[in-house]
Structures are given as structure tokens and as C-alpha cells.
């Protein structure tokens, strides 16, 4: 649980302090008030670029001194991240007051989120689904973030070598391909473990009131990857990128009751499928790590009918997660009791007296 959250010069927040009193925190306010900015700040306490995928330099408060800071007390361990004014593109991470890596944050806090932009996840590119899958995977296998970063670094070096005008050193290429194969195997194994266990958990889930998803991985993965990469150097050089490996895999989601691909389902059904995945994942993380993840749910109550909304709130509480939810009106959470209500206005957050 996040016991204390502070934001300094982040987005439109000059100096915000939130001290949660309940497992569920509801942030309400007008559009543009800064509710989603608070969720984005929390999402940066995990590896990656946060729920918006924005550049670090764009996160500092406009008109501020430059740079920003985010800090959270997570059950007595202080986690912090931000950038300095002098190096606005270089991320700083501290764990317990000691400099660390973004990947190291996953050891202390599992964070997942659902935003309105993700409503099109099943219709967008495979890259978006891979990023979603990898966030789920990191929560169960924190080392997955490190393997992914090292795989990407080796692949970028290989691509640069193949794009060079001079003939690349075969031994150097082979070394990079061996690194990609090593980390690629770890990536594929962690993803497969997650998908297999999620599928087992979801098979007993009822089809209503939320759609039950069937999950499978698509792609060649990392099987014999070093051999494949060596044989495909000429093709990859012509393409200007690496065309084989786990970075090309995709997550397939099917509506179980209708036997229909998620991309062909209605908008409401797609959101229901996402919610089912998120709820099952939260239960899996809690069973595996002994503590539930933090869930960031942006405008979660919008466009859900009152019956499903009530059931959703009940199931969210059952997960044992710390919930951070946003909405324009507190009435959207009328079926939810015992939450800590904070109002957000013009970059300020204050606990509601109501």
C-alpha cells in the first residue's frame, strides 16, 4: 500500500500531498483538473514510461523551475523518481534513499492501470498489447523488466551494425545475437508462465456480468533465436530492423462465450474483457507475491451501467488491492462505500469533507 504520496512540480501539480486513509481512493474533479496526472505519477513508480507513455521532459510543470519529483512511502520503504532541471531526460530513481534503477522498483511495488485510451487495446497494434502483457508479467516476475531492457539494448546495437556501410564483424553480431537469445528466452518464458496461469484462473470465471477472455500467445518466441537471427542478417539489414524474436509476439484475446476475437467485439465487451483480465491478474499477483498490486483506474465508472458498476466495485474490493480511481462526479461511485474521497482542482488535491 502507498501510505504517503508527494508530487513536486509534476504536470500541473506544484506541491501535492496525499495521505490515504482507506484502501480505495477516489479522485474527483473537472476535466483538466489534474486527476489523471496523479495516477500517472504513481505509474512512474514502476518500470517504464508510465500510463501515458510520455517523454520525461514533458512531465515537468509548465512555468516551474524545471525537473520534477515523485515520492511514495510504500509500507515503510521510500520510493522516489523524477528528473533534475539540468538533465530533464535522465530519470532518477531512489529506493530507501539509495540510488537505484527503474527496474528495481518492481521488487517493491506492483502497479497496473486501466485508462480510457486502453479501450482500443485489442484493435490497435501488437506493440500496445505486448506492452500491456509485459506490465502484467513484471508484476509476477520483476526480473522481466531487466531482461526486456537488455534484450532491447542488444537488438538496437545489432540493428545499428547491420545498417552500417561497412561489413559488420560477424563475431560481434554473434555475441549480440547470443545476448538477445539469452534474454529472449527469459522474456518468452515469463510471458508464457503468466498467460498459462491466467488462462487456468479465467477458465472457472463466469461469462457474466463481465465477459470471460481466452488468452493465448502468438508468435515464434525465442526458440532457436540465435540461429534464426544469424540466418536472417541480410533480410534484417534490408528491412532496417530485426524481424524475428519475442519483440514480435502478440497477445490473442477471444470472448469465450461468443468465440469471437476481442477486436470484433463491441466497445463495452472489450472493456469488460480488459476488466476481467485485470481482476484475474490482481488475484494471481496476490497469491504469488503475498500482496495485491496497486490498481490505477482512470474514469473507470464511466460508460458502465449501474448493475455492472456495483458488481465491479464488489469485485475490486475482493481483490485486496489499493485502488486509485478517478471520476468527474462522486455520484459515479454511489455503489461504493468506505472510500477516501479527494477533490482535485487546478492542480491541488484536498480531502473532501463529505
TrEMBL record:
Give a single Pfam family match.
SMC_N
Q: Where is the RecF/RecN/SMC N-terminal domain?
A: 1-325
Matching entries from Gene3D superfamilies are given as: P-loop containing nucleotide triphosphate hydrolases, RecF/RecN/SMC, N-terminal domain
Q: What is its main location?
A: cytoplasm
User: Its Gene Ontology biological processes?
Assistant: DNA replication; DNA synthesis involved in DNA repair; double-strand break repair; SOS response
Which locations, inside or outside the cell, does it occupy?
A: Cytoplasm
Q: Which residues bind ATP?
A: 29-36
Q: Which GO terms describe its cellular component?
A: cytoplasm
Q: Which PROSITE patterns match?
A: RECF_1 (PS00617)
**Which is an annotated GO molecular function term of this record?**
ATP binding
**Keywords noted in UniProt:** ATP-binding, Cytoplasm, DNA damage, DNA repair, DNA replication, DNA-binding, Nucleotide-binding, SOS response
- PANTHER family, per the entry: DNA REPLICATION AND REPAIR PROTEIN RECF (PTHR32182)
Q: Which family does the similarity line name?
A: Belongs to the RecF family.
Instruction: Please give the function described in this protein's UniProt entry.
Output: The RecF protein is involved in DNA metabolism; it is required for DNA replication and normal SOS inducibility. RecF binds preferentially to single-stranded, linear DNA. It also seems to bind ATP.
| NCBIfam families xref list | recf
What protein am I looking at?
DNA replication and repair protein RecF
Q: Which source organism?
A: Sphingobium fontiphilum
Phylogenetic lineage: Bacteria, Pseudomonadati, Pseudomonadota, Alphaproteobacteria, Sphingomonadales
Question: What gene name is given for the protein in this entry?
Answer: recF
